Amino acid sequence: MKVLVIEDEQKVARFLKKGLEAEGFEVDVAEDGEKGEKAARTEQYDVILLDVLLPVKDGFSILRDLRHDKIKTPIIMLTARSDTEDIVGGLEQGADDYLCKPFSFDVLLARIRSVLRRSAQSQVKLKYKDLVLDTVTHKAQRGGKTIELTSREYALLEYFMRNQGKLITRSELAREVWGYNFDPGTNVVDVYVTHLRKKIDSEHKVKLFQTERGKGYYLSDKKLSFK
Ligand code: CA
């Protein structure tokens, strides 16, 4: 599980990062609003902890702009105790929860888990065009026809489905799907992608897996251009 912490107070950010890592989360920290929003838009996070008062761009503006652009990553706002009106505004703008500072780490953890549970329930099925991936049964369907997947193929396809239209490099797949923090130096990624795309695409005229030569792969029903 990956968490983005957007927080300018270094002490708080360090405390959150350390505590969450100890609980097994992967944690990125952004120390201003602009960097935080960029990370939220480019990386895939399971939950975002978003401070309200931030340099460059405040938390509510970030929340509003992310939701406006249909980025639905669960967001927990971290607010100062006096901001009751802001809390209501934040929830109306699509925050999933909020915590008033100072908060205890245990309460934060409970809130994160509850937000993650809710978001898992709302995302039982991932869809792209006529491809559907059930995150509970781990089965895929394309055009209504069931496709059996091995556990690694499932993990790989889930990663593609959660990053639709994004160029995904081999090293990113090695890291996110295999858990390698280094280049495995083999073509294991290509072998798996080739196998998976055969299962998904071979019987269909419209291909959903695309190759960006020398760079990686992406899920799209047409060729896209990447800078
Ligand atoms: Ca702050």
If you had to describe this structure to a student in words, what would you say it looks like?
- This protein is an alpha/beta fold.
- 41% of the residues lie in helices and 22% in strands.
- The protein has a 5-stranded parallel β-sheet, with helices on both faces. A 4-stranded antiparallel β-sheet has the order 6-7-8-9, covered by helices on one side. The protein has a 3-stranded antiparallel β-sheet with strand order 10-12-11.
- Strand 1 (2-6), helix 1 (10-22) and strand 2 (26-30) form a beta-alpha-beta unit.
- The two termini are 29 Å apart.
- The mean pLDDT is 90.
- The protein binds calcium ion.
- Residues 8-9, 51, 53-54 line the site of calcium ion.
Q: Poorly predicted ranges (pLDDT <50, ≥5 residues)?
A: none
Proportion of β residues? 15-25%
Largest sheet, if any? 5 strands, parallel
**Total beta-strand segments:** 12
Average pLDDT across residues? Answer: 90
Order of helices and strands: EHEHEHEHEHEEEEHEHHEE
Annotated CATH topology of the largest domain: Rossmann fold
So, CATH architecture of the largest domain? 3-Layer(aba) Sandwich
Number of domains: 2
Number of helices: 8
Report helical residue fraction: 40-55%
Please supply descriptive tags for the structure shown above.
2 domains, 8 helices, Arc Repressor Mutant, subunit A, binds calcium ion, alpha/beta
